[in-house]
Amino acid sequence: MTKPQELREMSDEQLAFTLREAQQELFRLRFQAAAERSDAPSALRKIRRDIARIHTITRQRELAQEAEAKLAPQAEA
């Protein structure tokens, strides 16, 4: 499980790569669970939470950029 602080320190590209890896891992774990070969059922929950953390941090960055864009024209005036 990745800590939120570690995710916040990553660049956008690193976050996107981490997200893709987590989604692939989730797919693999779901497939194992369907075949009843899952060693750790709690791993699904951990991966889903990591994916949610990545999405949250990505959205926070988007909102921060939008806020900066709105403030930039006001600062020039």
Automatic annotation (TrEMBL):
The keyword NAD does not apply. GO terms for cellular component: cytosolic large ribosomal subunit. CDD domains: Ribosomal_L29_HIP. Keywords: Ribonucleoprotein, Ribosomal protein. InterPro entries: Ribosomal_protein_uL29 (IPR050063), Ribosomal_uL29 (IPR001854), Ribosomal_uL29_sf (IPR036049). One of its GO terms (biological process) is translation. It holds the Pfam family Ribosomal_L29. One of its GO terms (molecular function) is structural constituent of ribosome. Belongs to the universal ribosomal protein uL29 family. PANTHER family: 60S RIBOSOMAL PROTEIN L35/50S RIBOSOMAL PROTEIN L29 (PTHR10916), LARGE RIBOSOMAL SUBUNIT PROTEIN UL29C (PTHR10916:SF0). This is Large ribosomal subunit protein uL29.
